[in-house]
Amino acid sequence: MKPFREIVILALFLSLIAGCSEKPEEKQPVAEKTPVTAKAKEPVKTKVLAEEVKLAESLKASGAKLKKDKDDFVIEVDFRGTQIDDAALK
Q1: Could you tell me how far CA 41 lies from the centroid of its own chain?
Q2: Checking CA distances to 19, which of 30, 35, 43, 51 falls within 20 to 30 Å?
Q3: Mapping DSSP to helix (H, G, I), strand (E, B) and coil, where does residue 46 land?
């Protein structure tokens, strides 16, 4: 029984020594590693197609509410409170 106790004490002692090692150096985030001279990409400006404008107008005429973004693209169509069927959407 005595050798088992010595082995357990030795294992605990070694785990304490190994657990108290120095902390590893903190890694810098990737954003900090990139050079400051890197330029952000400019957003691509595209025009709304005439076909899409006609589609948006027809949806609005059917009673739908359209939500547009800053570039005048339709990002949301709300049909709540309107009577519309599949044939009208084609």
Answers
A1: 18
A2: 30
A3: coil
Alpha-carbon distance 44 to 71, whole Å?
Answer: 11
Residue 39 structure tokens: 């330029």
Provide, for the chain, the percentages of residues in helix, strand and coil under a 3-state DSSP scheme, each rounded to the nearest 5.
Answer: 40, 10, 50
Phi/psi zone of residue 63: left (φ > 0), alpha (ψ -120 to 50 degrees), beta?
Answer: left
Tokens of 29: 């985030």
At 22-41, the pLDDT tens digits run 666 777 666 655 555 556 66
Of the two residues 36 and 85, the one the predictor is more confident about is: 85
Report how far residue 61's alpha carbon sits from residue 58's, in angstroms, rounded to the nearest whole number: 5
Question: Which class for 67: exposed (0-12), middle (13-18), buried (19 or more C-beta within 10 A)?
Answer: exposed
